[in-house]
Amino acid sequence: MANIEKQRAIIDFTLASLMRRKGKNAALLVVYTLVVAALASVMFLTKSIRSEAAAVLVDAPELVVQRMVAGRHEMIPLSYIEKIASIRGVKSVRGRLWGYYYDPVFGANYTLLVPQESPPEEGKVAVGQGVARSALAEVDNIMPFRTSQGALFTLTVARVLPAGTELVSSDLVLLSAADFKTLFGIPDGMATDLVAEVSNPSEIPTIAAKIARLLPDTRPIARDEILRTYDAIFNWRSGILLAILSGALLAFFIFAWDKATGLSAEERREIGILKAIGWDVGDVLMMKLWEGAALSLTAFVTGVILAWLHVFAGGAALFVPVLKGWSVLYPSFRLTPSIDLMQLAVLFFLTVIPYTVATIVPCWRAATAAPDSVMRG
Amino acid sequence: MIILNQVSKVFNKGKQNEFVSLREISITIPRQQVTVLKGPSGSGKTTLLSIIGGMSRPTSGRVTLDGRETTSLPERFLAALRRETFGFIFQQFNLINGISILENVMLPAVPNGERHAPLKGRAMDLLAMFGLEARAATRVELLSGGEMQRVAIARALINNPRVIIADEPTAHLDSKLSGELITIIGRLKQEGRTIIMASHDPLVCDAAVVDNLVEIRDGEISDSAPAK
Ligand SMILES: Nc1ncnc2c1ncn2[C@@H]1O[C@H](COP(=O)(O)OP(=O)(O)OP(=O)(O)O)[C@@H](O)[C@H]1O
Ligand SMILES: [Mg+2]
User: Fold this and answer.
1) B46 C-alpha vs ligand 1 centroid, how far in Å?
2) 0.90 cut: is pTM over it?
């Protein structure tokens, strides 16, 4: 009980004392908050992009078969379908048509895809939000393409895809199989790759091995592998961001270290006074602990909230160019909030704890010195 | 009763700039009386007061407070002693700027763990005693010298100490305020407190409330006598 009252009294004094050095503490708080906000933004963003990608890939085919020629991905003959379908455990096989197209007019890369279900009719396309934005395309507009022969080839925008999974579908252009073949000059009976459905997912490795044996010029890719690739890409991208941010973090630590370790003459004098009037070392350090904790907790909480708003309400506007997009499109998108408590805990231990320690350590020396110098002013 | 036995203080001992500030001082300071340490600047008055008050330790010698030796107490107990037994009035007042009069007065009681309301009541009573009740919320750096002095005294009294230690309490005061201070000292003595002051101000040294005058010169006692 007495201890609670004591802590309360110490906190009262700490807060009053923080308010005195408003300018200095406010500057520190702002920088500190921004650093936390930046780091937390990266964490939130990568985490939710990963879960978003994972969510999209749940619908991805379990097994993709590509044909390889001279170590490169080639068009695959539809005649392979039958051979693969004959393997036990394979439920169905179908060909897919997809590819990338560089639009020289707008300097953007699109992903072109012939959807399995209800593809657009010939002469029509459905485009992702990003495409619509960068090509300034609205429904019923005409989009010009160039065929592989260099001829002009125009398609009409029938529909703009909803923004649901914008991260992945933003640069998407959906079109009919016939238009796709015309555009890229692909002969009939060929597909970009084949996708297989499997009755029992645990058999995927076995089936993949059988396909590779049966059709030696193919490469089967399981969904799990794709997930791993996605993961690696996002990790790599967030790695770049973290590298940039660690610079900011370092600068902050130098700043905080300087502020925390360099006790001003005024602070030294105050510690002396407190000791002279009967505070012991523990009381003084307790006060500094509260001071460091109050400041860094405020910064931490504010920073995390700012990051949340930035990423989930503001579409991570500040990071988008680095983090995302396979193309030069910069979609504005809303991510589904997804938070990794473990990451937050790490952030907490990387910011609040070192700062608090850094404020206490220099006071230790001032607080353990005999207070008689106070008598001499 | 405070007894100093062969107390010496050497600064920077063993170094080139070694300085002997106090040389084997032995005095007895009686309870509930006013004792004044008198001497020229640099004679060691402040050094002696800080040893008596548990702010620093003597290089050699012993101090006992009512039969209990204080010189070898661990730091934590010394802090408790400074807080509970002694009340300090510093020459420079040593108030903490930026916070209110009331907060300053309550500061020595923070480590006690008392409930807030009664503590605040006690602080307000003290401020009322010094006519500062209405200004309790004022920040201390806005006060006049005399007001600061009274806040410093109120702060020294918040934990109801048995011994008051005052170093040159009139150094920053004009003669009228010095007179008031002497009056307050008289009142504290009447309340049964022991008062130890360092001063070379004749207003203090020759005051009627002073019971004992101890003269120090170059760290040694040159004369110790009951005041006339
Ligand atoms: N920390 C220290 N290191 C070295 N010398 C010191 C230290 N503190 C005090 N002294 C010296 O000890 C001597 C006594 O100092 P003290 O402050 O006790 O004198 P004083 O009698 O209070 O003087 P004044 O009347 O000017 O306040 C002085 O010569 C001073 O320079
Ligand atoms: Mg002095």
Assistant:
1) 7
2) no
